[in-house]
């Protein structure tokens, strides 16, 4: 989970800080349900805007902003690249001091906290929310109000070695839970793999691998009309029991190292299946060497009773309320959502477009593996935008580790996670 682990780690630094948003009403900071930002003028953008962006995206963004400056003569976009592990603290300090940038890339799980702090501007009506993948658009919404746009997206699918799958008696990944488990077991008994499928044995971020199965059963991480956490639902319990069975049956390694060895294990055939995001394509091909791209494929998460679903992640772009150039700030964000701009950004960064129509660009449409990610994104879901999400989900990750490694009863583990989440509260 290379890219999202960096995001998750950065978010975890919020643990002591998010409490400042706790206890606020549903309309805190004037962010009541269904709010829409003031309209943005037509015509060219003007003036200067400051932009913060993290990681590789911060380094690469200036290659793209030159096009915006060319299309809007006289405009200057000043990009500051920020390391992910320092980003959250930098944002919270800037919000407290009233010295935020005009525009910024933010982790999708920060939206609830920043909106509750009354720091970010609601999205203007002229930005077409229906142009984005639904799950990605939901990451921008807090109490029914959208803040910014989903900039790039990622989701999780099943990676599998096609050559070893044939030895195991499978041409592709079955589209149901039992079929996935049967295939993983056959990878051991017939194809000679040490482990049938690599699954995260609890710990930080493990919820991102468990929840696709729960969502495929129709799970909802909230209850009481979206006002409380819902970690002990029957759907999540069913998914957790299924997930645990891979470890208790010896199909997945409960002693897997904290630092993943995904790529070499996949290339060697030691672990011929795993669940992860699009960044792993280039990673496994680099380790696997020449011709390896023809030895593996990807498939959607096997369906439950509610169909196939997965986790949607990525990053959003927001405009801060303190901006002195709101008009140009929003024009820049709107420009980032242009399908042609999204396709060009993919060519620069390999970040997948959040705008559905951008996937028709030949650079994406011609790649059959990417098409699987695109299809999965149509039903992928995001966690709730509660300010305390990172604190609450830490308890779920902890219990998942006990469930996978020590055989803790899943019902008891989820009950404990629910009690901890209830004590933390949503922060709304």
Automatic annotation (TrEMBL):
SUPFAM superfamilies for the chain: Periplasmic binding protein-like II
Q: Which UniProt keywords apply?
A: Signal, Transport
Compositionally biased intervals (Polar residues): 415-428
Q: What is this protein called?
A: Sugar ABC transporter substrate-binding protein
The record, for PANTHER family, names:
MALTOSE-BINDING PERIPLASMIC PROTEIN, MALTOSE_MALTODEXTRIN-BINDING PERIPLASMIC PROTEIN
Specify the taxonomic lineage.
Bacteria, Bacillati, Actinomycetota, Actinomycetes, Micrococcales
Region labeled Disordered — which residues?
A: 406-428
**Record's signal peptide:** 1-21
Q: Does the keyword Transport apply?
A: yes
